[in-house]
Amino acid sequence: MGAVKDGITKRGRTWSYVIRVTDPATGASKPKWVGGFATEDDAKEARDEARRAARRGEYIDRSGMTVTEYLGDWLDAHAMETKPRTLAGYRWLVRQYVNPHIGRLRIQAVRPTSITNLYRTLLKSGGRDGRGLSEATVWKVHAVLRKAFKDAVLYEGILPSNPVERAKRPRRDSHVLDVWTPAQLRAFLQAATSHRLYAFYRLAAYTGARRGELLNLRWADVDLKAPTIRIRGSVGMVEGERVEGTTKGGRERVVSLDAGTVAILQAHERQQAADRAVVGDAWANTGHVFTNGLGVPIYPDTVTQLMPKIIRAHNQPDPDDPSKRPADLLPSARLHDLRHVHATMLLTAGVPVHVVAERLGHADPSITLRVYAHVIRQHAAGVADTFAAAVDQPDEDDPPAAALAPR
């Protein structure tokens, strides 16, 4: 061990600090050593925090627990209160992007710079084949770490403060959603009409419901007289298994249907009854709206993978005339983009944000405002003219201007 200078020394390849802490029970002062810091600056920063905590009587004793060990215990503790799919996502992010880089660090040796360097590494080379990760993925890692380390402070009492909160995060660039036009949506739905899952895509586009919510839908939740559907839960894939749970926000909601979608659902119900009659006792009577030919509920990946196939088939040249291609070529799009199309068209049509938020199942209209801010800004561009037109166009019942003049 090297010389101790102002409580800092180097032990092998790492740095350590020592402070004196008073035992509140005995009043005795004892030295407390903490090591394992990658740099001298990290050790100094931790020493200063420990000194302040000791003066306040909040010093936290040393723990040898590593980041990998803590996050493993933390994830296990949250298994009872976290949705299986969400928990699986947390585990994957930790296993893939956190443990390989900072997993061996003691949790008490993690500094804001440790987290900042992690994010920088992930952005530069954290992905497959050494490619950088997107800012969105790094933000997901940040969200998990922020919550985990917050619990280490508030509930576990093994950290004096949360280093993740003070780490420098990647800048969040505002992303403008590039959604289909009404004509492109019509072209896609027309191309999907021949498929047995056409009603799924119609319902996704005309309700804005999430994939898992529609695949969880039962006929008992469909009221074609009202006409509405009740969104009660959702479906996801966890380690290759189809798992049902609550909606993303944990709340049920009722979504109204238009007459055209009602007719398509009625046709879908008749086709499902015909399938059931063919297979007889082999039919899996689960009550789901979207099933295969044996009544087995559809797996989420099925509808996700089918959509680009429909788009590619639509964009193919005419087999009788290879030089002729469709006039309405469809840009590539994800299944979730149908939800964006739905929300964008409603907002552009002037539907209030809180109504759109309720229809989409957003927990708060602020989420809708954030996701679709560009749409709202575009729509707001003409509100000055709208107001002026409303004021400047007199109604028959308005009093003459002279009667309103001050006297």
SSE blueprint and pairings:
Layout: E1 8-11, E2 14-22, E3 29-37, H1 40-55, H2 67-77, H3 84-102, H4 112-125, H5 135-154, H6 182-192, H7 198-207, H8 211-215, E4 222-223, E5 228-231, E6 234-238, E7 241-245, E8 253-256, H9 259-279, H10 300-315, H11 337-348, H12 353-360, H13 365-371, H14 373-380, H15 383-392, H16 401-404
Antiparallel strand pairs: 1-2, 2-3, 4-5, 5-8, 6-7
Helix pairs in contact: 2-3, 3-4, 6-10, 7-9, 7-11, 12-13
Explain what the structure shows.
- The chain is mainly alpha-helical and 407 residues long.
- The protein has 3 domains: 1-62, no CATH class; 65-172, Orthogonal Bundle (DNA polymerase, domain 1), CATH 1.10.150; 182-380, hpI Integrase, Chain A (Orthogonal Bundle), CATH 1.10.443.
- The chain is built from 16 helices and 8 strands.
- The strands form 3 sheets. The protein has a 3-stranded antiparallel sheet with strand order 1-2-3, with helices on one face. Strands 4-5-8 form a 3-stranded antiparallel sheet, with no helix packed on it.
- A hairpin with a 2-residue loop joins strand 6 and strand 7.
- Helix 2 (67-77) packs antiparallel against helix 3 (84-102) and helix 6 crosses helix 10 (300-315).
